[in-house]
Write a structure and sequence with these properties.
CATH topology of the largest domain: Rossmann fold
Largest sheet: 11 strands, mixed
Radius of gyration: 37 Å
Structural class: alpha+beta
CATH class of the largest domain: Alpha Beta
Number of strands: 21
Number of helices: 26
């Protein structure tokens, strides 16, 4: 005796495929079902929600799953246990029989609107009749049981149809045809005798073959039943629901074929006699997922995640140099996959709302780079991701980790953005610093050209000077003796001419106004004691070129809760510009000798402003310098048009998790494969659609991220302590040296 599996089917949110596709599935099952095992299709309610379920023999389960998912891309099929009915409720049932079953019910072409030509789904009427309240007191179901008709049954049907077609009286022929296909054997026998009396016992010679209709197609012997579960005191409601559901089947009938309903019965029905014949098309019309025009019916659960098929060859975990990204999420496939190092050099963009699982993925990516002895820079504006990564640092890499904690008041790590690697272009350093402050000031070349001009020349005058930092900018503006000393060491003739000619040519009052305005804006940041401790350090400072070349690990905790939003944004912007300068300085090293480094930036949009092309330039140029960027953000709409085009154009791989409607409209064109904005807005947590660059070719498919590893030992405090001893400077906050004494 065969066992059965129950499948719960959820169709896509927008399903434009009608019963024709279900018909193809049933035809395939009819052909594969050699043992004539029953297949039960159900449309039932569960606490007010409609559900499409299938009780399938285990021998046909794999065939049904694959065929149905091929027919309805984006649908999901989940195996579940058979529901247990409460003993406190009674069940009222009715059987429906098709009479005569040799005739055809209305086909799907007959359900098209004569004006628009759109298919009007008859199952939508069934759904409306089945709908119940959310309390679960009343539950309804329509059950269609199918098994392939036997050869004997098909032979009898063919013989009956042949004889009844020879009856000349149309009314009598219709009555006899209904009687010869009755479910009771005695009535069928009597009708057959009458037909033989009217037409003769033998078939006349030369008689043409009668039109066989649906007898030329694969046929199922079918049982159709409707049931209502209700409390003992709700029998009137149960009978009314039975009448409503039975009435909904009138839309499938024609003038010659109709459904006959038995009397309501308390308990399981008596399945007397044989079932009626249905073709695959007729069965599909009675049971199929709702099409798009009926998608507005309330309380119909849809597939939470539209699954896309992955490419045949994906980078696997055992391939060398592969960074794991997650698992394939397509039907029964759950194979782990990753991205090759050369494809990662073309960068990875991760998009998703808060809480969708971006931090878990970023943590996994950083951990894998650290374990493979690669250089890593993590910029985290929240702090939690940085803390999680520190807990996962292996012991052998403890001395390679630099913890740049912007809120560290014990021994902060210094960062001097005016310091560049040997041979780096001072103008690139100045442009990066200027861009970061311009974002904070809200200035542009059109509104405050003079202030930006003064600031640029101040930076160019200090870059390369021993002991110079951003704190020296204000002193350069107000201290004439210090300015004279600095100008004497300036090698750039244009910068020297600015101080000696243009700056002195201005009227004293104008010069004072410009300096005061610039001082006010700089003072808003540089008077922050925490920023003074970080940006004022000149001895122990982060050497980004060494981090890239020596495969060190830089964990930047720029938590806005500890240093404030503006200070966190400023530090992140300065770090990104300095990393770009450090990467460009690797031009003095042969490309084959450059070590790989991965720059992971969470909420990267916070460090960009309108017209800021630093990151876009870094994405376009960093591949040849073996610097890979992994960028994560919640909203693309926070980027200006030029930056958005640069990011989307230069990131070879894109992972889209749950996004908003505006971002979804942009990403559907990028991801392709028929995805709709609704698909991108309904992605479950830890799932997403990935456009993966594999050997230079992009592929889009559905995936799920890997769970975080179980940590037996949390090493965050140990790593922090070692980093403070090696890279921190114990300068008490509030007791920094005054700027005029540097």
């Amino acid at each position: 005796m065969s066992t059965f599996m129950r499948f719960l089917i959820r169709s896509p949110a927008l399903n434009d495929r009608g019963p024709v596709h279900t018909e193809s599935v049933l035809r395939l099952l009819h052909q594969a079902n050699r043992q004539r095992l029953p297949l039960t299709l159900q449309l039932e309610t569960d606490r007010g929600e409609l559900a499409w379920t299938v009780d399938c023999p285990v021998e046909l389960a794999a065939i049904f799953r694959e065929a149905f998912l091929d027919a309805y891309p984006g649908a999901t099929i989940t195996a579940e246990r058979r529901p247990r009915q409460s003993t406190a409720r009674m069940m009222w049932t009715q059987e429906l029989r098709l009479r005569p079953d040799l005739g055809q019910i209305r086909d799907h072409e007959g359900g098209r609107d004569p004006v628009s030509g759109r298919f009007v789904d008859p199952v939508a009427v069934l759904c409306a009749a089945l709908r119940t309240g959310r309390s679960g007191r009343i539950e309804c179901a329509v059950t269609l049981e199918l098994h392939p008709a036997s050869r004997r049954r098909l032979h009898q049907a063919t013989r009956m149809l042949e004889r009844t077609q020879r009856v000349r009286n149309a009314r009598l022929r219709r009555v006899l045809l209904q009687a010869t296909t009755h479910h009771r054997r005695l009535i069928r026998a009597c009708a057959y005798l009458l037909v033989c009396l009217f037409t003769g016992w033998r078939r006349p010679k030369g008689t043409a073959e009668p039109p066989l209709g649906k007898l030329t197609e694969p046929l199922f012997a079918s049982q159709l039943m409707i049931s209502v579960h209700a409390p003992n005191d709700a029998w009137e409601i149960a009978e009314r629901k039975l009448r409503e559901i039975a009435g909904a089947f009138a839309q499938f009938t024609t003038d010659d074929v109709r459904f006959v309903v038995t009397r309501p019965r308390l308990g399981q029905p008596r399945r007397r006699g044989r079932g009626f014949l249905l073709s695959a098309m007729e069965a599909a019309l009675l049971w199929h997922p709702l099409t798009e025009p009926a998608g507005s019916i309330a309380r119909i659960p849809t597939a939470p995640f539209r699954e896309l098929e992955p490419p045949r060859q994906l980078p696997l975990p055992n391939d060398s140099g592969v960074t794991l990204l997650g698992r394939i999420q397509f039907r029964q496939e759950r194979q782990q996959f990753g991205i090759r190092q050369d494809d990662l050099r073309r960068h990875l963009l991760i998009l998703g709302k808060t809480g969708c699982g971006k931090s878990t993925l970023l943590s996994s990516l950083v951990r894998q780079q650290i374990e493979r002895n690669r250089g890593v820079v993590l910029i985290d504006p929240h702090g939690q991701l940085a803390d999680d990564v520190l807990d996962m640092i292996p012991k052998r890499r403890t001395n390679d980790v630099i913890v740049f904690d912007a809120g560290d008041k014990v021994a902060p790590v210094g960062f001097n953005p005016l310091y560049g690697p040997p041979g780096s272009d001072p103008s690139l350093i100045a442009d990066g610093v200027l861009t970061a402050f311009r974002q904070m000031f809200g200035l542009d070349a059109g509104s405050a050209p003079r202030l930006l001009h003064i600031f640029r020349n101040s930076l160019l005058s200090l870059i390369g000077r021993p002991g110079a930092s951003l704190l020296a900018v204000q002193r350069l503006l107000v201290d004439a003796n210090y300015r004279k000393t600095v100008i004497g060491q300036v090698q750039n003739p244009v910068v020297r001419a600015f101080w000696e000619t243009e700056f002195l040519r201005w009227h004293e009052r104008e010069r004072t106004e410009y300096i005061a305005s610039l001082q006010n804006k700089l003072g808003a940041f540089l008077t922050n004691a925490q920023l003074q401790a970080i940006l004022g350090a000149t001895e122990k400072s982060i050497n980004l070129r060494s981090i890239l070349d020596e495969s060190q690990v830089l964990i930047c905790n720029l938590s806005k809760g500890t240093v404030g939003h503006e200070a966190s944004t400023l530090l992140g912007s300065l770090l990104l510009s300095s990393i770009h300068v450090a990467a460009l300085s690797r031009a003095d090293t042969p490309e084959s000798d450059r070590t790989d480094a991965v720059i992971v930036v969470d909420e990267f949009h916070a460090y960009l402003s309108d017209g800021n092309t630093t990151l876009a330039d870094a994405l376009a140029e960093s591949r040849k310098y073996r610097t890979s960027y992994v960028l994560a953000t919640q909203l693309l709409e926070q980027l200006d048009t030029a930056t958005l085009a640069g990011v989307l154009g230069n990131c070879g791989s894109t992972l889209c998790m749950t996004v908003g409607p505006r971002d979804a409209a942009i990403l559907t064109d990028l991801l392709g494969h028929g995805l709709t904005p609704e698909d991108l807005m309904r992605v479950p947590k830890h799932n997403g659609y990935l456009r993966l660059l594999a050997e230079g070719t992009p592929h889009t498919f559905s995936m799920t991220t890997l769970p975080p590893p179980r940590m037996t030992e949390r090493r965050g405090e140990t790593v922090r302590r070692v980093s403070r001893e090696r890279y921190g400077h114990k300068t008490a906050l509030g007791k920094l040296q005054p700027m005029n004494q540097q």
